[in-house]
Amino acid sequence: MPRHLDPAALLADLDPEQEAAVRAVTGPVAIHAGAGSGKTRVISRRTAYAIATGAVPAEQVLVVTFTDKAAKEMVERLHALGLPAVTARTFHAHALSQLRHFWPARHDGQPLPELLDSKAVIVGRLARQLPGHYRFTPSKDLADEIEWAKARRITPRAYEREAAAAGREPPIPADLVSRVFVDYERAKTRAGRIDFDDLLLETVDLLEADADAAATVRARKRWFSVDEYQDTNPLQQRLLELWLGERDDLCVVGDEDQTIYTFTGASSDFLTGFVTRHPGAREITLSRNFRSSPEILELANRLLAAEGRRKRLVPTMTAGPAPSIRRYADGEAELAGLVAGIRALTVGSTAGGAPEQASVSEIAVLVRINAQIPPIEAALTKARIPFRVRGQRFFERGEVRDALRILRRLPDDIVGSQLLAALDARLRADLGFEADGQGGGAEARERTANLALVLEIAAEAVAARHDIDATGLVAEFDARAAAEAEGSGDGVNLLTFHRAKGLEWDAVFLPQLEEGTLPIRQAETDEAIAEERRLLYVGLTRARRSLSLSWAERRETGRRRPSRFLSALEGRQGRPPHVPGQVTIIPGAPMNAGRAARAASGRGDDSPLMAALREWRTTTARSDGVPAYVVASDALLIEIADRRPTTMPALGRIKGIGPSKLARWGEEILAITRAVR
């Protein structure tokens, strides 16, 4: 063994579960690593312990990670342990090194073709050649579908049949996906390029067809450790099997409850079925959590228990403040509550009474989709709270830039609601925007949400200044874009649940936990709902000390219902009753009796008054040639139905009824509220 490695020292600060995992240096091993259980430490220590005890030479070790960032971190950890020679790479990086070595001998001395940085350039051009409305399909959705097929070694010609057999719902009709797939492969070949999927496909083909190459590869690495194994897809699994050969020195580490990338082809089945495929394999569970307070872990455990799971994360940290679940009157109230919650943390006090403090850089706000971030940006900007958007910013999105280019080309002689209607029409004609479009892939839905938000921001500007022209509206967007671009590196972190995986903060806010958002509206199958639940689980377990969840009863799109997952967190669904101090359920005071009152009075979403107001809005919109939401949003109609004003001053006091609307439609609205009972 290397003289500088002391096996006893490598075990000294580990808990019993971690020590058992580190000592298991031979044979097939599956480590089920719960959130915050120190899996990276276990992987690096286990590697060092295997080398220190002579189980394997350092040069024959391969630690497989799923991202370059994780590989770099692993290399740094191993180097700190005195192991600079250990290889830690992604599947793609290791496959690339093998292809570069063997390719010339198998291709008349030609070097490995250059890699495509992205499929987007080729796929985007092919998408624009699709018929009808399909030409607006985002290239990412089509690229993701191609990647799903290649991860299963499905050829372009076989795609349509195999997708149907798998029950796959492609972003566009399967025959069109097949056409794009065929044309993509042809264009890639003509350009003399290969993509990242080809790295794995070509390496698998090489090792399956060339016994000598396979023997050479296996002679170089014989001891494998794979991180984030729950995210493995079938192609990666096959490559791993080929690297391993007949040997069994394989350790896989993962957490099935953090499987949130099944849409890319990942499957936790390889983790949960590891012992079946490797009889006699040891299974070790890391259940102690070294990240979150007991109160936060109680919520995470409840979420799993609601699915019938017996798994529990065991706390090791000191007690903290009770997590909160807040119900707000509307989206604006929720944003105000979010700002107040962040302010309270940064000055060292919480609503629960227990003193807590966090720097802004140790606070995160997690959302389901990127389109939820801009309103939060605006609220934080107004409150002068620094923030940083992790991932692609709203105003950097291609469809948002396209929408603003369209806005800049609109003539300045149209203003107000007519300007808004013109922008809406151009987005539909030029970008294929459909406000209620629910089809397509995840990127298409994100794109639709972002364009809808562009119109919502424009509508807010028009409501504030009814004579605003295109130049003024562009200035409003430019100001918002500048505020976003100035986001501080030390500010509150704004990002999606997906991007939050693997990260952690002292305080985490999870707003808009509503049906249609989390779970997202498109999650219709049991499998899709299960993945949405896992997303929330990932969100909950990112928090160390403070956790705040919230939802709103009303948004611009109308009435909302709390996420079905909140019932489990509140200790309902037939589970053990609420344990005081483990979660604070805070109802939105303005709305406590609102639902019952509306039901008793016959008002609300389905009342005769609402029906009459909706009919008036439809007729008025058609008469003026503008979209219905330009006349009045659902939220505004609900507010009118709730308050039932009978005078102009009373109507004018309703938020959303500005001077322009009051002068133009006030008498018509009052005629309805006076007549309909």
Report on this structure.
- With 677 residues, this protein is of the alpha/beta class.
- It has 30 helices and 19 strands.
- The protein has a 7-stranded parallel β-sheet. It has a 6-stranded parallel β-sheet with strand order 3-2-6-7-1-8. It has a two-stranded parallel ribbon with strand order 4-5.
- Helix 23 links the parallel strand 15 (505-510) and strand 16.
- Helix 6 (120-127) crosses helix 7 (139-151) and helix 18 runs antiparallel to helix 21.
- The longest helix has 23 residues, at 442-464.
- It is globular and about 85 Å long.
- Residues 349-354, 573-582 and 588-604 have low confidence and may be disordered.
SSE diagram, text form:
Layout: H1 7-11, H2 16-23, E1 29-33, H3 39-52, E2 61-65, H4 68-80, E3 87-90, H5 91-106, E4 114-115, H6 120-127, H7 139-151, H8 159-165, H9 174-190, E5 193-194, H10 196-209, H11 211-220, E6 223-226, H12 234-244, E7 250-254, H13 269-272, H14 274-277, E8 282-286, E9 288-289, H15 294-305, E10 314-315, E11 324-328, H16 331-347, E12 363-367, H17 373-382, E13 387-389, H18 398-409, H19 416-431, H20 442-464, H21 470-485, E14 492-496, H22 497-500, E15 505-510, H23 526-540, E16 543-552, E17 554-555, E18 558-559, H24 565-569, E19 584-586, H25 594-601, H26 608-624, H27 628-631, H28 634-643, H29 648-652, H30 659-675
Parallel strand pairs: 1-7, 1-8, 2-3, 2-6, 4-5, 6-7, 9-10, 11-16, 11-19, 12-14, 12-15, 13-14, 15-16
Antiparallel strand pairs: 17-18
Helix pairs in contact: 2-3, 5-10, 6-7, 6-9, 8-9, 10-12, 18-19, 18-21, 19-20, 26-28
Q: In brief, what are we looking at here?
A:
The chain has 677 residues and is α/β, with parallel strands linked by helices. 49% of the residues lie in helices and 11% in strands. The model is unreliable at 349-354, 573-582 and 588-604 (pLDDT under 50).
